[in-house]
Amino acid sequence: MLSSRSRWGSCVFRRSAAWTLSLRLNSCSLFVFGLIEGGYGLRVLGFRLSVHSALVGIVYSIAAAGQTRTQVGGTVSDPSGAVVPHAHVTIISTQGQMIAQGATDDRGAFRFSDLGIGSYILDVVEPGFRETKQAIKMDGHSQLLLRITLSVEARDETVTVEEEDSSIHVSGEIAQNENATSVDRDALNRLPVFDEDYITTLSRFLNPDATGTNGITLVVNGIEANGPGVTASAIKSVTINRNPYTALYARPGRARIEITTEGGTPQFHGSATFLYRDSLFDAQNPFAAVKAGEQRTYYEGSLTGPLSHSKKTSFLLSLDRDNDNQEAFVNAELPAGRLDENVPNPTHHYFLSGRAFHDYGQANEFWMGYSYEHETVSNAGVGGTILPEAGTDTMFFEHEVNVQDTYMISPRLLNQLHFLVGHFDNQTHSLSSAPQIAVSGDFTGGGAQADARKTEYHFDGTDLVTYTTVKHEMKFGIDIPDISRRAYDNFTDWTGVYSFADLNSYAVNTPFSYVVQSGQGRVPFVEKTVAGIFEDTIRVSSRLELSAGVRYYWQNYFRDIAHNVAPRLSFAYAPTKKGTTVIRGGAGMFFDRTGPSPISDLLHFNGVLLKRFIVEDPSLPVTASEVAAVPTSVVILDPRVRIPYTIQYSVGIERQVTANSTAAINYVGMRGINLFRSIDANAPLPLNFAARPNPSVGQEREMQSEGYLKGNAFEFTFRGKPFSFFSGQAQYTLGKTYNNTSGITYFPANSFAPNQDWSRSDNDRRHKFDLLGTFSARDWFELGTAVSMYSGFPVNVTTGNDENNDGLSLDRPAGVSRNSLHGPGYLDLDLNLTHDFPFSHDKGKGPVATLSLNAFNVLNHPNDGPYVGVVTSAFFDHAASALPQRRLQLNLAFKF
Q1: Number of domains making up the chain
Q2: What's the predicted TM-score (pTM) here?
Q3: CB-based contacts of 642: which residues, under 8 Å, 6+ apart?
């Protein structure tokens, strides 16, 4: 499970003449430009904030320009004061005719413009709450701002088992694109989710080539985080690709997962889940000689309720305990023949989170939380061609304190402040200290040579101001994704790694290289990343909405200050008054960030601290004189390096298909510019590759930003409830992505001609289809369904040898391009059969127990792992491992 990264702070506002906004933490001062209407100063847990007068005239001039048309807007919150995102909001005439519809954004806000003179009904619907209707009256010149507080369904100490809200409609709101994938709490309970891992289940809708160096971006309650901060039952909804071009986040929609978590409630409610799985009921893995003896037990739950008699102070506790006694399957080719072996690979995980909420009224809320996570894994890395002795034991723990404050200064102005502090420790210990033996494509034995420890003390913070007028919704502020004091203890390759081209070379003791490291393994450093945000969403008319924003990005060690400005633009247009068709599109720049590993490499391998020696054609065992005869290798940064960025653009059409379902067709283009890669700047010269140009240095790994990516895709998306017995969403993608790098650690086969590696991306799939849905047989049962059908990833073909003497076995056969081999496809059908056992005769109210039987890979389809691309391997053009066969999982849940 990922760890928490939510952040907010407590606020006390005072009237002031100052218009400057500053943010101070101890001796650190961070400056935020913004506006607080009416001139309020802000003091937050030792923070001091005020507002800069230079923006006042700009904001009020825009506000004045937008006062020519009527508008109704406001926020929707629950009884605790927490905002309610994605609630369905409808404007209805007094005769019952629907006038407009939409949904609240991530911060619970909604807005409708161009309403005519007259009386209307505002209708708000959200699963788990009572439907709320409010009469409103427009006089032709008014701007009506409302605060809607929803009531929890069945508040008399009962719990509602909600029916999924099937009201799915195309919307002219930019943030309500129908090619998004959104799953709420009720759907999460009904879908087949392996080990309650909702993040992995929804990750199938992401685009790996859009994620960047740091991987998937996780957004929790509207703020970038590194984990949900709560256990599975406290997750309210999960969304992929909502509002893909917003300036609020660093990466595009297909690179981030947005999670909304539960808050505190005035009444006691809880949930407990028990999960059980045993290999006795599973099919045998095709690469296992003996059926594995695996078993998993998982306990998880959450509890929320009041902490005071007034019920304005509440709490949320969540915890889980996971004992996963799985096995790894070794399938390796040794000189004596094939080795098939099952190896215990247990994982033990524990997570605890507690949060306290206080409702100040009028949607103003403060909360503070603490979380602790601990995980151990034995025999990590073992499996496939990795032998048992080459595994590791890993240990991880993290403490975090999260603070959040939301303050609505006026109906137009909202300030949201988040921050966290935490401590992280991740250790890896090799099972054996022996030198590693790596025979390309056949087996890896000896020690793992992977001993390392990573620790950090980190701070994250975000302050965002939202200002709303009749036609504009402006957001601006500062985002600090990471300020960390890190330490990296690198003791990898301490006794060395011998690499062999094939089994014949191993049999005669002739490795092609030996790599060993020595010196100072510990390096402390500080990583700092900061971003500035501005975005304006403009309601041009009732049928056209525009959004323009910009995000500025800065990172130490990569100080390309002048160029890191990322503009974003998007639109949504309804060509007819009926609003059953919406045309939408957009474009944006998205800058990457390196994360800590490349920084630690630069500091470690500077030629002085941690020395890395590469011995070509060594003896076995290697002698001290052989190592002493070669110079140390170094890591350097290209002086021309820039922060990489991706340009994404799209256009599409959305159409209402039935009363409760929509379809969308979108074209998405993507270009990656100045992408990270590495080359050996001191590689031996062709044609004979006999010597390095600079004999005083070994391998000179130069981190560059010279890579390029080109991707095009068509997406076909269906969402909704086309039949009374089925609701869900499906997406088919036809795409193609080419690049010449796979990231900052990627080396080309030929460092003198890195652009020759232009080919299919490692993540390129030509065809991709996913479906998530639920079939309902009324009171009998519900059948959750997940279907995935993918074409295969490409495979890079190599000789397994280091023919150009650069210390890397990346050489390809003559005339063979990168990623030229087609890998295996993927087919998976998962099912979840669910039945509720209520404890009350009043349908839908009271405690309820739910029994679920999950089956994963129901068809028992053999899904091979990646093909081996080494031409000399016994596994060439075949897999040495496979994904699991059919598995059964029993879930028992109780809610009250």
Answers
A1: 1
A2: 0.82
A3: 558, 560, 563, 674, 705
